């Protein structure tokens, strides 16, 4: 009896995160003398029994994967903690001549590593995607700021400008975006009545229009509801 008995402990190393369930596999085959199967943490005088086939009620956090099986002694250890790190052995005991359980077969041992956190492939992939999205967002914001800065440097017709004219001081020119029925139409209307100049110096003329209406004052000859405007023409000598 016992010559055809074998014990298999296939796991060499197992990594598990804190709080998860650890599974330790052990199966037997053949016939052996009566005696329990136990799981021991460590070997030698300092070992600790974490599961005993005969004393199931003492290990509430350890359960059998297949209850009442005589060949499958795989166990589950719930809520694993850092102190559970170590090497675990599946051991078959038999009754000795003195009535004390003696080691009959021992597994090769399973080294258990308990990690503080576990990075599963899905979490790693999600982190990579999030980093890429953040990078794209940063690049997009930087591009928008660059384009806005560049457009601001070039300027637009409605930005305040300063024109130096000979010895005269700088003259600010302002322009307001025109919409229908706004003073911008008055400028177009009044500028059409200006006397045209056909000389070559016409390009040096600078026309200034204050699009803000002047305070209304009673004047003769103006239709009611028409706000007066201010118009000025400057001429600069060509250089």
Task: Please provide a written account of the structure.
With 239 residues, the protein is of the alpha+beta class. Among the domains are: 6-115, Immunoglobulins (Immunoglobulin-like); 118-146. The chain has helices at residues 121-154, 183-191, and strands spanning 6-8, 13-17, 22-24, 27-29, 37-41, 48-52, 62-64, 75-77, 86-95, 101-106, 110-115, 161-163, 171-173, 205-210, 230-235. Strands 2, 5, 6, 9, 10 and 11 form a six-stranded mixed sheet that branches. A three-stranded antiparallel sheet has the order 3-8-7, with no helix packed on it. A two-stranded antiparallel ribbon has the order 1-4. A hairpin with a 7-residue loop joins strand 12 (161-163) and strand 13 (171-173). The chain crosses the membrane at residues 123-146.
Topology:
Layout: E1 6-8, E2 13-17, E3 22-24, E4 27-29, E5 37-41, E6 48-52, E7 62-64, E8 75-77, E9 86-95, E10 101-106, E11 110-115, H1 121-154, E12 161-163, E13 171-173, H2 183-191, E14 205-210, E15 230-235
Parallel strand pairs: 2-11
Antiparallel strand pairs: 1-4, 3-8, 5-6, 5-9, 7-8, 9-10, 9-11, 12-13, 14-15
